[in-house]
Amino acid sequence: MSAPEEVLAELGLSVPDVVPPVAAYIPAVRSGNHVFTSGQLPMKDGALLSVGKVGGDVSAEDGYDAAQQCALNALAAVKAEIGDLAQIKRVVKVLCFVASTPDFTGQPGVANGASELLGKVFGDAGRHARSAVGVPVLPLDAPVEVELVVEI
């Protein structure tokens, strides 16, 4: 299998710099053979990809893209903690929060933005348990927030 960053490059993507925390926490913590990320927002080049609620101001497609960016930011946090994404043995769990309108029920499809990227990058090791949760609001009015747990 290709190294994770090589696969990302083939997809036209790369691991960004770690997004600085917006409050009193750190981006990732290693405990034993696992790394837990803090919730990552869809920040790219210092700004949110979109703001608002999925099903309202933000389309499901834009939410999917936001979830993918959140996953890239989570991988950046993991990389900063362990040095090399090739050390990831398995993506264990993805938790995706989707700020959405009350009538929007497509949270799983939005979360696929993160899940499908991880599957492409890590193959079978990228298959994971997941929760996709609709919430009324997220920090900075972000439409999506993603956390990862990976085994190293």
Record keyword descriptors for this entry:
3 helices; single chain; globular; alpha+beta; 152 residues
Description:
The strands form two sheets. A five-stranded mixed β-sheet has the order 1-2-7-5-6, covered by helices on one side. A two-stranded antiparallel ribbon has the order 3-4. It has helices spanning 4-10, 60-82, 107-122; strands spanning 28-31, 34-37, 43-44, 47-48, 90-99, 129-135, 144-151. Helix 2 crosses helix 3 (107-122). Strand 1 (28-31) and strand 2 form a beta hairpin. It is globular and about 40 Å long. The mean pLDDT is 97. The chain has 152 residues and is α+β, with helices and mostly antiparallel strands.
Helix-strand blueprint:
Layout: H1 4-10, E1 28-31, E2 34-37, E3 43-44, E4 47-48, H2 60-82, E5 90-99, H3 107-122, E6 129-135, E7 144-151
Parallel strand pairs: 5-6
Antiparallel strand pairs: 1-2, 2-7, 3-4, 5-7
